[in-house]
Amino acid sequence: MKMGINMKHKRKTVNLIKKVIIISLTMIIAVVSVSCGSYLEAVGNIAESPVLPSKTPQSSPANEPSEEPSESLEPTSTPEASTLPSSTPTVTMDPSLVLSVNPLTGKSEYMNEFSLTAKPVAILLENKRQSLPQVGISKADIVVEMLVEYDISRFMAIYQDPYRIEKIGAVRSLRSYFTKMALAFDSYIFHYGYSEYGQENAKQDLIDRNLTTVNGIFGEDNGHPFYRDSERLASGMESVHCVVTTGENILNSMKELSTEKTAKADQEMIFNFSTESSTKNGKEATKIYLTGIYISSPYFIYDQDKGAYVRHQFADVQIDGNTGEPITIENLFILKMDTQYIEDSALHVAITTHGTGTGYYMNDGKYIEIQWSRDTDSSKFNFTSNGEEIKVATGNSWISCIPSDKSISIR
After folding, report:
1. Can you list the domains of the chain with their CATH numbers?
2. Is the model's pTM score more than 0.70?
């Protein structure tokens, strides 16, 4: 009996303990829930607080730098005319320049007013390797290339208006056949000396023709247009390769000569110019090699982008020292002429520049075979193909005169 009462008492005690435990756990869970809620609310308040930086910053105060430039720093879509140049600036034209057609190129150009009635100017230029680069040659309207001695070629650069060119050179001596070629283009010659003995005697040829020239070597230079270039001398060039002149000096010299000597014989175009040349239906000529003719071994490569031939010699591109740019040619003539090698101490040559001969005309990457004729050594050239006068494209020209027994390579 007593044992049953004890067991019953124990069960009541156990149940009471369970209730206490359950009530205690319930209270603990409630406290924890409230604490967590307060904590999360506090964290949320911190995240929204303006005192601490946010991962995505709000707009900055006026006195702090901003990631986005202020509107006042951006350029306006329509700039003020007073601060930026106009898209079409006003060009002040030199009043001494007149728009006219250049008779040596067939192109309309702004030229010095003096050049409209004056003869073209022909200047003899050196082409030894030691004298390179020439300066001012790329501005020539026509360049005539001929042999001198020791298979060296020399140039005669012809300009209708050389008067704005910075520098032209190196200027060298005259040969009688260059005089004859200058007369074909009604040009006034500038040179520094001449051949004056034996069969090749340019000095005597001028006397016989009663021609005057601007010759710097003997003081017959009409205004002293020539000088030895200090930059070329400083580079180590021999003084003989350093004689140059300027467009301004040439103009002054020409103006000091009488009008009778400098006036053009006529105003005709030197070639039968056309917007489309006779080579339109010609054969391909993108590479022309004059190997074994001149010691410089010149060749011409057609540049489609430039629409012109780029000249090379001495295994390199030929450049103009004034600009550093390659020499480009729109019309290329190769003329075969009777050439004799004179047995004198200088190994001069004699070239026949009149009569008839054959040759080639290249333009726009194509060529045709031509015939050239000239009644006398002072008259103009006539160029034909199959009996008809050829059409020459407007632009500059290069004329290489080679011995009639020599051949060239055209590819």
Report:
1. 97-410 (3.50.90.10)
2. yes
